[in-house]
Design a protein that fits this description.
Blueprint lengths: L2 H23 L9 E9 L12 E11 L6 E3 L6 E4 L3 E6 L2 E5 L5 E2 L5 E2 L5 E7 L5 E8 L14 E7 L13 E2 L4 E3 L5 E5 L3 E6 L4 E7 L6 E7 L5 E3 L3 E6 L7 E5 L13 E8 L5 E12 L2 E8 L5 E8 L5 E6 L8 E6 L9 E6 L11 E7 L7 E6 L4 E6 L4 E7 L1 E3 L7 E4 L2 E3 L8 E3 L8 E4 L1 E3 L5 H33 L2
Parallel strand pairs: 11-27
Antiparallel strand pairs: 1-2, 3-37, 4-36, 5-6, 5-9, 5-32, 7-8, 9-10, 9-31, 11-28, 12-14, 13-20, 14-19, 15-18, 15-20, 16-17, 16-19, 21-22, 22-23, 23-24, 24-25, 26-27, 29-30, 30-31, 32-35, 33-34
Helix pairs in contact: 1-2
């Protein structure tokens, strides 16, 4: 027994304690990968020595092997905390020099760049203003602070149900004994309506009238005295008879009920939606549906505060399905009405819109909207962002829109243990590690990402404390070999 073996054993045990102590010290370090001390025995080199007579001269530290096993992933709720689940490293830029890390705690600097606590920039694929990601090369990722540009509304899509049992509200359906206008005979005049038409009679003197409703069982009548120039509405199946002695020139007129957006009795169902112009300005587009007869509807549209006008008609069959749409302004798409609205904020005017009614029905149930949407939006500011499992950084804007801002990439290596540990959770590529294999998360042998989370240290404190006891025993045992050799030497000296 010699001092050489004991000294090498003490050195090895000391190194083992250092590695274990480093693991324990970094038990709370985000992304830390624990190490294991690997030892090798030593023999004196002598060609003449018989193999079966070789005596070892101790041990040596062969390597400190990093354990790149997965650490526990904990959620933090911070948008720029990103955990790697599986293989790979974040690629970081230190003034152009590339390093690699498993620490996914990032923040924005004053230039909008994504950096870690040491100021190193996170690398990835950039996206242009249209959200198209350029995967040609990695660049430092930057979160843009500019507003997302507005998009003008060009189409409105709506699916409605229009009540088949609703009464018609506009049209010319009433009849007179002498036509829609006529001179009163001495016996008076009778007019019959099939809609909410207005019967007006111009008498120079008051006359009596009787309204008969033939739709009631039994028929009902209402009598009164007519005031010249006052209209009397006629409903479907309702007739009015005037009696009295007309004067020369007295006449009667049945006036068709005209659509009036300010009079709810002239339409059956109103609805509205916000539309945006090329500058992001918004105004409300009102739409009205007025039944003219069974299966036939007029459609009106206009901006709030303006005048709505007829933009087309819709026709339904006996099953309630939409069979035809006729647009006042020619439209190239089926079931679509074309119209325009004025703008006053400096954007292009008039603004051309279309209303697509595909899927609209006429069933015997209440009027209602099943779906109503438009394809424009106002300008918006970035409110927050998220990181997807594929590394795509998605921005959420105040106008309800989303856009891809870039994509985080991962680097993998043939031999991660060939990387040089630079400290601060950073590694550097070497010839031993092989070239960095850059790819998007989730592809080939690259792991996925989890936003709003971090990967904890993979140090197992229970195992490390057991290893600590073992290393301590090894140190004590090697110290004992030196003490024993010292005792032997003292015995020889005392001879």
């Amino acid at each position: 027994m010699g001092y050489q073996q004991g000294l090498s054993g003490l050195s090895a045990a000391s190194s083992d304690l250092d590695v274990i102590g480093n693991n324990i010290a970094n038990a709370d370090t985000i992304g830390f990968k624990s190490g294991t001390a690997v030892f090798a025995d030593m023999y004196a080199n002598s060609v003449a020595t018989a193999v079966n007579n070789q005596i070892g001269i101790g041990t040596q530290l062969a390597a400190v092997q990093q354990q790149f096993s997965q650490g526990t992933i904990n959620t933090t709720g911070q948008a720029l905390d990103v955990a790697i689940n599986g293989n790979g490293f974040f690629q970081m830029s230190n003034n152009g020099a590339l390093t690699y890390s498993r620490n996914g705690v990032f923040q924005l600097n004053n230039a909008g760049q994504i950096v870690n606590s040491q100021g190193l920039q996170l690398m990835g694929y950039a996206a242009n203003s249209s959200g198209i990601i350029n995967s040609a090369q990695t660049v430092p990722l930057t979160v843009p602070t500019t507003n997302i540009a507005p998009t003008a509304t060009t189409s409105i899509t709506g699916q409605f149900n229009l009540d088949a049992q609703a009464a018609a509200t506009v049209g010319t359906f009433a009849t007179l004994a002498t036509g829609n206008t006529g001179t009163l005979a001495s016996s008076g005049v009778t007019g019959t309506g099939t809609n909410s038409d207005n019967f007006t009679i111009n008498f120079t003197s008051a006359t009596a009238y009787t309204i008969t409703d033939t739709t009631a069982v039994p028929n009902t009548t209402t009598s009164g005295t007519y005031t010249a120039g006052t209209a009397i509405p006629l409903g479907n199946g309702t007739s009015v008879t005037f009696t009295g002695t007309p004067a020369a020139g007295d006449s009667a007129t049945v006036a068709t009920t005209a659509f009036n957006q300010n009079t709810s009795t002239t339409y059956n169902y109103p609805t509205s939606i916000q539309a945006y112009d090329s500058l992001g300005g918004s105004q409300t587009v009102d739409m009205y549906f007025a039944k003219t007869s069974a299966g036939n509807w007029n459609v009106y549209a206009g901006v709030a505060g303006g005048t709505a006008s007829l933009i087309g008609t819709a026709t339904f069959n006996s099953n309630g399905a939409l069979t035809g749409v006729t647009s006042i302004t020619p439209s190239n798409a089926s079931d679509t009405l074309a119209f325009s609205i004025p703008n006053t904020d400096g954007s292009g005017t008039p603004q051309t819109l279309t209303l697509n009614l595909t899927g609209t029905t006429q069933f015997g149930s209440a009027n209602g909207t099943n779906n109503l949407q438009q394809n424009g939006f106002a300008a918006g500011q970035l409110s927050n962002f998220t990181v997807g499992t594929n590394g795509i950084l998605t921005g959420n804007y105040t106008n309800g829109q989303t856009a891809d801002l870039g994509q985080i990439v991962l680097a993998n290596f043939n031999d991660p243990n060939g990387l040089v540990d630079l400290g601060n959770n950073e590694y550097e590529q070497t010839a031993a590690s092989g070239a960095a294999q850059i790819s998007t998360p989730g592809s080939t042998n690259h792991g996925t990402l989890q936003g709003g989370a971090v990967e904890e240290s993979n140090t197992d404190l229970t195992n490390e404390l057991v290893n600590l006891i073992t290393a301590q025993r090894n140190y004590q045992a090697n110290a004992q070999t030196i003490k024993t050799q010292q005792t032997v030497d003292q015995t020889l000296i005392n001879l």
